[in-house]
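FW: tagging you since you asked about this chain on Friday. Here's the raw sequence from the shared folder, copied in full. Didn't touch anything.
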Amino acid sequence: MGLKNNILRKVFEPRLRAIDRFRRHPLEVQREVLHARLSEGANSLFGRERGMEAGWSPECFARKVETFDYERFKPYIERMLQGERDVTTSGRVDAFAQSSGTTSERSKYIPVTRASVFENHTRGMRDVAALFQAAHPASTLLDGKILTLGGSCRVEQNHWVGDLSGLLIKYTAPWNAITCTPRASIGLISDFRQKCEAICRHCTQQDVRAFAGVPSWNLELMRAVLDYTGKANLKEVWPQLECFAHGGVSFAPYREAFRELIPDDAMCYMESYNASEGFFALADDPARDDMLLMLDYGTYYEFRRGEEILPLEGVKVGESYALLITSNNGLWRYEIGDTVTFTSTLPYRIRFAGRTRQFINVFGEELIVDNAERALGEVCRKTGARVEEYTVAPRFMTLERNGAHEWVVEFSREPSDRKLFAELLDEALRRINSDYDAKRRSTLDTLVLYAVPRGTFLGWMQRYGKNKVPRMMNERRVLEQVLDGQ
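HL: got it, structure written out here
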């Protein structure tokens, strides 16, 4: 085990103790976070408007501060964009993450403060490494490099604006150079193809032992690496590769593709939950398929179920909730549009359950992303097919025909019979979702499947500035954009 690995293990020890503390004392830690947010916010325009005081209890805070979505919070963000200081947090906000906005054409500008960079996002990335090392004592991962694939950023009206990952590359470049690759000048290249070419030239000669990022973009990069090197798999390029830290989307559609790229049963896939609004959770136990909710990253959590909003101590295992955050990036009781399901409350563990707006309920079928993922997994196992990307939208009813669901699917391994694949998928959805089955017996025809060529969805993401594909929509905009771009 190398010197760098041993040094970093020592560096990680205080963080592991801090993580153990909030595992054992979650409510105490969350009250400390709320107190810090109130202390800072009391001196802001937002706080003064509400008579905010540092000593408010969680109950008083919930009573006196209303909840927000992006549109309601937007007037404060616009004032920050104009350079105004002390709007919802102390000082001037100099950077904004431009959200990909899977549920909207309009870009969202999420404030990124120095505190959120170093106490939230960067701490989360370091904790991924710390917890991986704790779970794998024999690992030598940190003797090599971690390849991070991010986006880009630019100056816009005297602010840095862009993908969160691009902003993090810019702000953390001096520190990340110790453990991460490529260098910032490559990582911030805006054209994805040019970035891949530069990474191939720069990184294939390095000792890469882990990589991190969104699965879809990394899959394209790793295919480019194999094309560039002429190797059969990534272990031939980087023999000591041992971990992929992924997040942003469900890993299920990509798992088989990565197993082909990395034919090693010891390869570890470590999930994290890192959004433009904050770093919220990460996998800490290789024996589990859920994530530890990170309670000391400067984010105070609340959870909506129906009309009821609950603090952390009010949630129940097995229930799904919309996530609200009050954070060191200046967001207050802000509903980010994600839902999570709790798998444990000692400690608090979650699974990402989907977007609050990504479902189809045009005909009363209440089909959600989890239904689709389960059905696809079942049918792929039966047929040997592999689905890499997909999106689903309704075909609306007319006087002449029933409604239906239309699926646009990008296969990385085609089924031998597409018609059979579609029939089996429809049957699986009917078994999984009783509402869908009921509508199939009345107002819905069998689903329609369109198979598109490899790279179609990547092209859509590049054209529209997205980093993920909306899986389900109640309207047809995304589906038609994908089909039109073939």
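FW: The CA atoms of residues 242 and 273 lie 20 Å apart.
HL: agreed, and The first strand starts at residue 95 and ends at 99.
FW: great, closing this out.
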